[in-house]
Every structure is written in C-alpha cells, then in structure tokens.
Amino acid sequence: MRDACLIVVDAQYDFMPGGALAVPNGDEVVPVINHIAARFENVVLTQDWHPRGHASFASSHPGKKPFETVELSYGKQVLWPDHCVQGTRGADLHADLALLQAQLVIRKGFHRDIDSYSGFVEADRRTSTGLAGYLRERGLKKVYVCGLATDFCVAWTALDARAIGLETALIEDASRAIDLEGSLARAWKDLEAAGVRRVASSRI
Ligand code: VGL
Ligand code: ZN
C-alpha cells in the first residue's frame, strides 16, 4: 500500500510476558505484525522511552502503588510499575519484529514530568512528537495502528490520528490489551465514536 502507513506501537519487552508491565499474550502480536507488514511500504514504530524516576511510575510517588492514579499538572495519570526505562532491555523492541523497511522510530514519554500514550501528542496534549508532520510530508493519509496495549497507547495513537483527519484503522488481532477496570470497553467506545475502523489482519 503506497499511501498508507503501518504504525506499530510499543512492541517492547516490558510489555511482553515476563516484562515489567506485561500485557497478557502480548508476544502473540509479533508474528501477526510481521505477516501484515509485508503489505506496507511505510512502517513507523513507537517506543515507550522513560527516564528513571518518570512521573508515570508509582515508585516516583511515595505511598502510591502501581495502577492507582494521581493528579499531575495535565490531569489524571495512571501509575505504572517502572517500565521501558531508557537503555534497559525492557525498553528494547522485540528482536523478532521483521520490519526492515521501517524508517522511523518515535520515542515517547522521555520528558520526566509528562507521560505519552499517544505516538502523536504527549499527555499534556500540547507537546508534539513530530509524527503528524512526518506523515503529512510523506503524503500518507491513511494509517493502520497495532501493537501494545490496545486500550492505552494503541487507542490514544489511533484517536490522535483520527483527530488530525487521517483515515484510521486499528488492527484488533495485531494488538493486545491491559484491560484495567473496563479500559478496553471504554477504548473501543471512544474509537468507534471517533470513526476509527476496527479491522482484522486477514482483511489487510
Ligand atoms: C503503555 C502504559 C504505560 C502502552 C505505555 O504502551 O500501552 N501503557 N506506558
Ligand atoms: Zn509508559
């Protein structure tokens, strides 16, 4: 596909079984992503890339535990176990990803005080990653989003793609969810309301 881009979100060891923030069956997305990637000339990856002591880590908030929430300057933040710390193996992209044609890796969440689920705009909803400009300059008007986790980084990336007018699909079986207190159902409701298409990898 010439005018479409595959966006592979956070396919990193810390989100795989055994990782610091393991997504159930997260490793199952890797062969599915490799299979569909063959159809795309344009592939972008995102990489969660936090400094030690990041504001999204429960360990940075005395008395708080993972999966509790806290108010940060930009609003409510879910607190996570330390994960995807810059330079650690957990932050590495899965070695079995076969995406030689991918030309861009967007690192996100590297400002100590701002999280970033989305590959486009950080959680303060102001700081841009540059991905929108990249897609625009490349003439890519259609995106297929997949990876980890469906209900956080994949959903936010797909919603932001729609918000800038891109035709957007989320590849359901090339993604897996954390599903924290109904977050997956909520994400699908928001995605459908925004006009993000829900597709199966077999239809690509
Ligand atoms: C993610 C929680 C924290 C994700 C990243 O990739 O969905 N979730 N950081
Ligand atoms: Zn993170």
Mean pLDDT: 98
Number of strands: 8
Runs in which pLDDT lies below 50 for 5 or more consecutive residues are none
Tell me the major beta sheet: 6 strands, parallel
Output the CATH homologous superfamily.
Answer: Isochorismatase-like
Tell me the count of domains: 1
What is the CATH top level name?
Alpha Beta
Topology as H/E string?
EHEEEEHEHEHE
Largest sheet strand order? 5-2-1-6-7-8
Ends apart, CA distance between termini:
10 Å
The helicity comes to 10-25%
Architecture per CATH nomenclature, i.e. the level-2 architecture? 3-Layer(aba) Sandwich
- How big a fraction of the residues is strand? 15-25%
- Helix/strand-derived class? alpha/beta
CATH topology term: Rossmann fold
In DSSP terms, counting alpha (H) and pi (I) runs of 4 or more, how many helices? 4
What does this entry show, briefly?
With 204 residues, this protein is of the alpha/beta class.
Question: What keyword list fits this structure?
Answer:
about 200 residues; alpha/beta; Rossmann fold; two-stranded antiparallel sheet; about 25% strand; binds pyrazine-2-carboxylic acid; binds zinc ion
Question: How are the secondary structure elements laid out?
Answer:
Elements: E1 4-9, H1 29-37, E2 42-48, E3 69-72, E4 75-78, E5 104-108, H2 131-137, E6 142-148, H3 150-163, E7 167-176, H4 183-194, E8 197-199
Parallel strand pairs: 1-2, 1-6, 2-5, 6-7, 7-8
Antiparallel strand pairs: 3-4
Helix pairs in contact: 3-4
Bound molecules: pyrazine-2-carboxylic acid and zinc ion.
